[in-house]
Structures are given as C-alpha cells and as structure tokens.
Amino acid sequence: MEPRDRLANCFFIGAALIAWLAVAQLVTTTYPHGSASTGLVGAAMIGLGCGLTAVPLFWLMAYASHRRIALLGDWGRAIRRGAWVAAVVTLFVALRIQAVLSLPIAVFVVVLVLMAEITLSMER
C-alpha cells in the first residue's frame, strides 16, 4: 500500500466521520415532520454518510482480493460502488419517510443496482 492510498483512505474516513456528525446534529436538533424538506435533507445526509463509509471498505476488499496489490482502477471502482450505496440508502430512507417503501420496490432497486454494477465491473 502506497502513501497516497493511505491518505485517500484517511480522507474518506474523515469525510465519513464529518458526515455522520452532521447526521447526528440533524437528528438530535430537528423534528422530521416539522417541514417537508427536513426528512429529505436527512435522507441525503444519511446516504452520504453511508456512501463515504463504504468507499474505503470497497477499496480494501479489492486490495485484499488482489493479494495486497493496488491496481489502477480500484479507486474508481470503489468510489462508484460507494456512490451506488449512497444513492440506494438515500432512496430507501426517503421512501420510508414518505411511507411508500415496500419489499418489491426494495428488491427491484437492489437487483437493478447489482445488474448495473456487474455490467460496469466486467473486465474486458
């Protein structure tokens, strides 16, 4: 692992920590049914926190699976997968706040994301 990889991991972990502190601040100081936008802002913040937390984990999984060799596209793939996690979590929390989340919708979204990620991750 090179110093730039350590620095990038520290950056993402620090950004995730800041995002989770912002979520804690929002959750403890506001009432989600007070205004229409508060719940959606909270959903976006929770999605951002989950996505930023997932990026270093995805990179470390790829690093470990390649026998501790960092390949060229690993960071891009990890950031893309973290963005998928952020989008799915944001969508699920927003749908739950609006009381329209159901199991078929959740399964459809997860399968759709998995199929898109498998297509994008195919090695040529």
Protein model, in words:
- It is a single chain.
- With 124 residues, the chain is an all-alpha fold.
- The protein contains four helices and no strands.
- It is 81% helix and 0% strand.
From the structure above, extract its key features.
mainly alpha; 124 residues; flat
Q: How do the helices and strands follow one another from N- to C-terminus?
A: HHHH
Report helical residue fraction. over 70%
Number of strands: 0
Mean pLDDT: 87
The biggest beta sheet is recorded as: none
Query: What percent of residues are in strands?
Result: under 5%
Rg measurement, Å: 17 Å
Tally of individual helices: 4
Quickly give the structural class. mainly alpha
Distance between the termini: 25 Å
Sequence stretches where pLDDT stays below 50 over 5 or more residues? none
Q: What is the approximate shape?
A: flat
